[in-house]
């Protein structure tokens, strides 16, 4: 096989100025219990980091779905696997931060659960898979940028900035592979 919590206030933080997929919200539903283990400011940061971790789990699952679809040409599959590796690195960094704060990281769902939540049955071509991935990357960019000011520990804001930069790179590559125009207006992301 090729490898490719949230409490209501935290969800509002991520959604204020950023759009999460309905699937991301579904996947994160009920995971706020993990944040409750860490009190005070650390608990707020754990809750936000767990939402970010949920996004990374979703991205790993989405790239796995793309890889298993047999719709990707060999060069595109190679890039998808690379991007999935980036998301695994993001996941691992977020898990470490959550555990350092005394929280419990949210668990990943199965690939089948992600496929259902993300409506993967609508993917019928390489362009469909790439457009799907591009949309998820854009949602992650906006979510990470939108949450940066919400951290009590500003070091986590820096981490989310770095994650947003990686997601922006993924979005840009996917845009180019799809032969779509890059945005002509400034301040494209985070709105």
Task: Outline the fold blueprint.
Elements: H1 8-15, H2 22-28, H3 40-68, H4 74-100, H5 111-117, H6 126-147, H7 154-177
Helix pairs in contact: 1-3, 3-4, 3-6, 4-7, 6-7
Strand content: under 5%
CATH architecture: Up-down Bundle
Kindly, what is the distance between the CA atoms of the first and last residues, rounded to a whole number of angstroms? 38 Å
- Give the C-level CATH assignment: Mainly Alpha
Largest sheet: none
**According to CATH, what is the topology?**
Ferritin
> How many domains?
1
Topology, number of strands: 0
Radius of gyration: 16 Å
Mean pLDDT across the residues is 82
Specify the helix fraction band: 55-70%
Low-confidence stretches: 1-38
Q: What is the H-and-E element order?
A: HHHHHHH
Q: Considering the protein shown, what is the CATH homologous superfamily?
A: Ferritin, core subunit, four-helix bundle
Overall, the morphology is globular
Class per helix and strand makeup: mainly alpha
Given the structure, what is the number of helices? 7
């Amino acid at each position: 096989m090729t490898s490719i919590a949230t409490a209501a206030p935290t969800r509002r933080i991520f959604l204020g100025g950023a759009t999460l997929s309905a699937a991301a919200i579904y996947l994160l539903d009920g995971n706020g219990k993990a944040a409750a283990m860490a009190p005070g400011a650390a608990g707020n940061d754990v809750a936000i980091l767990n939402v970010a971790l949920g996004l990374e789990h979703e991205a790993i699952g989405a790239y796995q779905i793309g890889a298993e679809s047999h719709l990707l040409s060999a060069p595109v599959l190679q890039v998808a696997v690379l991007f999935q590796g980036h998301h695994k690195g993001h996941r691992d960094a977020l898990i470490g931060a959550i555990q350092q704060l005394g929280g419990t990281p949210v668990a990943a769902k199965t690939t089948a659960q992600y496929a259902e939540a993300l409506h993967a049955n609508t993917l019928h071509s390489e362009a469909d898979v790439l457009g799907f991935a591009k949309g998820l990357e854009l949602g992650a960019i906006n979510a990470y940028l939108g949450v940066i000011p919400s951290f009590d520990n500003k070091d986590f804001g820096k981490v989310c900035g770095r994650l947003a930069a990686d997601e922006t790179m993924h979005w840009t590559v996917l845009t180019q592979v799809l032969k779509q125009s890059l945005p002509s207006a400034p301040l494209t992301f985070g709105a």
